[in-house]
Amino acid sequence: MRQLEYRRMKETIRHNQLTMRIAEPTSSWDIMEWVIQRAKEEPRRMWMGTWGTFCFGEGPDEPPCGTAACFSGWSNVRMVGSLYLGDIGRGTADILAGVGEEQGAEDGEGLALRMALYNELFVADDLMSMSAGTPEMVEAVEKRAREIMVRFEKRLKSVIIHPGGKFTRMIEQG
To answer: What is the CA angle 120-154-104, rounded to 5?
Structure first.
């Protein structure tokens, strides 16, 4: 019986995740703002120690929506409608930073943003070791995310993410 409940719950969660996906192109900045807001609305959604997990939403530490994830996982939900996208964290950091193989090593700002997202936010030991789903964790995650957002504001606002996770960059004309 529990197996059937779990399958139905996963189907419901998958549907809910798809409805959270962006319908129109939006900036990396706006994706990060959305993740912060989701976590502040319901701190139990933010579990920095896990990429993403489905739960029944029955326990006191479980979010009623049935999905808990790290910042990167929630970014994926917003971009592609799923927790899962390529290499854990790295693919998300690449998209949010607007870097890919075609940019190569010449895109220093993009690479710096990708490394900041990945190392300082997505897999930061201090954030991952905090108690999951607590207001204190959400506050620390928001503080770290906003520090990165301030440092890379122009870049984050110039990377436009399209439904499904493809990105383009708005380049200023001289």
So the answer is: 70
* pTM attached to this predicted model: 0.81
Tell me the C-alpha distance between 102 and 99, whole Å. Answer: 8
DSSP code string of 12-67: HHHHHHHHHS-SS-EEHHHHHHHHHHHHHH-GGGB-TTSSEEE--S-STTS-TTSE
Beta strand 159-161 with 26-27 is: antiparallel
3-state DSSP assignment of residue 106: helix
* Every domain of the chain and the residues it spans: 2-169
Structure tokens at 126: 């201090």
CA 35 to chain CA mean position, Å: 6
Block means of pLDDT (10 residues each) for the chain, length 174 residues?
58 63 88 94 84 62 70 84 60 86 69 94 91 91 97 95 79 51
Which helix (H) or strand (E) segment holds residue 147: the answer is: helix 135-151
